[in-house]
Structure formats: structure tokens, C-alpha cells
Give the backbone structure.
Amino acid sequence: MSREEQFTRAILDARLPVPEGLLDGVARPAGRRFSVYRNNVAVSLTEALHQGFPVIAKLLGQQNMDGLAAMYLRAHPPSSPLMMHYGAGFPEFLENLEQLSHLGYLGDVARLELALRCSYHAGDATPLDPARLSAMAPQDLMRCRLHFAPAMGLMRSDWPIFSIWRYNTEPNAPKPQAGAEDLLITRPDFDPIPQLLPKGSAVWIAALQAGETLGDATDAATNEFPDFDLSAPLALLIEGLALTDLSQ
Amino acid sequence: MPARSEHSHLPNAAGVGYKPQHFQSIMENAGTVEWLEIHAENYMGDGGRPLAQLRHLSERFPISVHGVGLSIGGEGPLDPDHLARLKHLVDWLKPASFSEHLAWSTHDTHFYNDLLPLPYTDSTLTRVCDHINQVQDLLGRQMLLENPSSYLAFAESTWAEPAFLNEIAKRTGCGLLLDVNNVFVSATNLGYRPQEYIDAYPIDLVGEIHLGGHDEDEDDHGRPLLIDSHGAEVVDPVWSLLAYTLVRSGPKPTLVEWDTDVPDWPVLEAEAARAASALHAVKVAA
């Protein structure tokens, strides 16, 4: 077994003995000196999960979050030196834990936190001039396709994830009520902003993301939600600087 | 134009490790801080605030890019994706310096987010040199290699660390980043005098000096075990070791690192000011 193999196994599993041939300054076995590495790895990855999932940490409490982080980091060490991406598997990990099965919303709340982090680091884009939309006749506009900024995100959940997120991040936010919620993430400046979407809007945006025309996307949304009105989500996209282009 | 080191384009002045919470303070009044260092991996996203801030900072300050994830001491080949990201950043930013560590952090596609140690043998020497040659060829520039903090020694090591670093620099043409806190930590942990290390170290190859705080613990025998934490003020014996080093090296770009429990700007700036006066003292003496 190579030195690295010995090190990484013993770092991730504190029950394993300290590898042979590691010494102190007078050639005695290194003993607990090796724990410095075990501790550095565990503490830094636990800290990264706390920073990446602050709402999950708040919902679970510090101690539970530390315990889950300890399990997660051993099962899923980072697969890249870019710590900004660490925790991509955390939502699924939370969903598969028997002891958390009564908190069904945790996975989607964690997905929302991942999506916000992803938006924060996404590429910059020049926003579409809204005058280009207003200059078009409605029937011409319906034949157009919209293009989105990399920092824009869309989420659909069976749980009230936006309300849960807001309740845990904003003072005086209303208590979450049961029910599905869709949300839009935009990054008009540098901070991603999640917003609740009216019914049908997520169907409409998803169809546009798939490359459908405004007309076809609007038909798809109206089929599912007869009261759908495109003006509300379109305004959110424009205000959030989430549109970059318009094409035929 | 401030004097610059042979092995770096950073000024022979005080710098700090950049933390985003200090952005406004630095832009308003950086005090004695004349240059900044960033961790490469934090600026490998596609856009947003990190890169926007870095662009602003780079218009005002020389920037040192300090990698923490290349795993130069690793057994396996360097990650081509990570090398490509590094090249992209360095080509865009055109930093005054690029440095990395004599350590490894990736094994078998997993990244451990810590600077892990390697034995110093003829075979690890060859491997580290191959990796450094690869990095320098790719980036088209000289890099600096930093000495680690050691908590233990390897039975199979046949090279002392200063000689190992000297040989790497001789074979690859890289420069060295001398972390005097790491020297102090390693010397305390492994039972030698830190000045001995500096005396044996190829001081002419230094392109940058690091300072930082450490934590104190004990080993199984009740002997001091210092841990490089970058989470506190630089202790007096490390300031003394800096002075001892500067007398031999002459003024060098000198950086204060504070990465955990990051203080408000005035506390960090005061540490940089202390480094600046140590540099001033050696300039006056020269």
C-alpha cells in the first residue's frame, strides 16, 4: 500500500492504527501527531458543509449537522479541489437517511442552497435590453425564444422550500404552510435572490429553457394552469436581469 | 518603483492574504499593505462577485496567486482539468507571482482539503520535480515552492528538507516561498532549532516570505505540538525568526496569512505593519 493510500485510509477512519514508519523528532512512533491531519481534514470539510448549507445546519442544529457532516465527508470526500462545488451529493444523502425520513423537505432545501451557491459563482452575462421586447408586436414576440443568464435557476418542489428558506434566513418571515412551491433564482447584482413563482410560471420557464418559443411555452403553461399569465414571470426575469437575448 | 526580488515580481513590501470581507477596507485604505495574495481555487468559478472583486483589486495591487489544490507532492499525475483551470486564471490575471506547496492533497480522484506530507527520498524528489516542470512549462513562468508545517517525520526520508528544496530548485529552476511560521512549527515539533533550518536553507532562492499564527497542543509524551492554523496573531519567536531570516535574505515580499477566525481589517493591517517595519529595519541596515 502506498504512503498516500495509508494516509487517506487512516485519515478517514480513526479506528485504523496510525501508519507504520511515521515518527516524532526522536524516532518514536508519531501517535497522536497523526491526529492533526485527521482533524484538519474533518474540521475543514465539516466547516465547508456548514458554510454551504447554512439553512440545513439551522434546521438540524449544530450538533446534528456536525454528526451528518462527519458521515458525509467520509462517504463522499471532495472530488475536486474547488471547494465551492463541495456537497453536490448532500441533498440525496439527506434524503436517504432513515433517521431523517420524517423531514422529507430537507433534500429540496439543500438543493436550493446548492442552487444559490451555483448561481453565485455562475458566469457573468450582459442582460437583454427590455426595449427589444416592448418594441415587438405581440404575435411576433410569441414566435421568439428567450435566452437566460447562467446565474438564473429554476426549482420545483413538492415542499414549501421557498417559505422554509425565507423563514430561516429573514427575520419576521411568515411561518411556512404545507404545499408545493416553485421558485426562481436570479442574480441582478452579485447576490442570488430566490423568489416564489406564481402557478404555471415554472412550466413556462422550463419550456423556454428547453428552447421552445414564447407561444409554445405559454400554451404549455396554460394547458396545466388555465389562469397562467406570462406577465408576472416575465417581469421577474426582466427585473432579475435573467434574460440575455431574444431570437427568432 | 519599489525594489523587487529576483524570484518574484512582487514588491519587497508587506502583503496580506486577501479575504472578501476586507474588500471595502482595502479599497478605501490599505495602510501599509502593498500587495495581496489569493488562493487560486477560490477564483476558479465562472464569474460573479469573487472574480469582479479580484479584477478591481488587481487594478490597484500586485497579486500573488497561491495554489492550495495542485497536489504537487502527490504520487499520481497532476489533474489535467485543474491545470487547465489554473492556466486560465493565470493567463487572465497575469499575477506578479504563482506559488504552491511541497505537499499533496489529492489521492485517487479525492481531494482532502489539507496539505498532506510526503517523505523526502530520491524517488519523491524526481516526482516533485516532474510536476513542477510540468506546471512551469504550462504556465510559461517560474513558480515558487513553499515549505510545509511538519507534525511528524517519515522513517524512509533520506533528505533534510532544506537540501530537498534546494535540489528541487536546482533541477527545475523554481524559486522558493519561505514560510517562517512553518519553519518554527516544524522545528518545535521535530526538535531542532529553527535558525539551523534557515542557515541550511538556500536563502538566495527566496521570492516570498510567509508569516502566520499557529495553535499549541501536546503530543503523547507531553511535548509541544504546534499546529499551523492561520487563525491567530504571529507570535514573538516567529517575528524574531523573520528578523533573523531578513538579515540573511535582505528585504523580500512578506505576507501575513490569516485564514480562520479572520479578524477585522485593522487587526490584520497591524500585523502587516509589523512586517513592514521588519522590512524597513533591514533596508535601513543594508
User: Anything to note?
Assistant: The two ends of chain A are 60 Å apart (CA to CA).
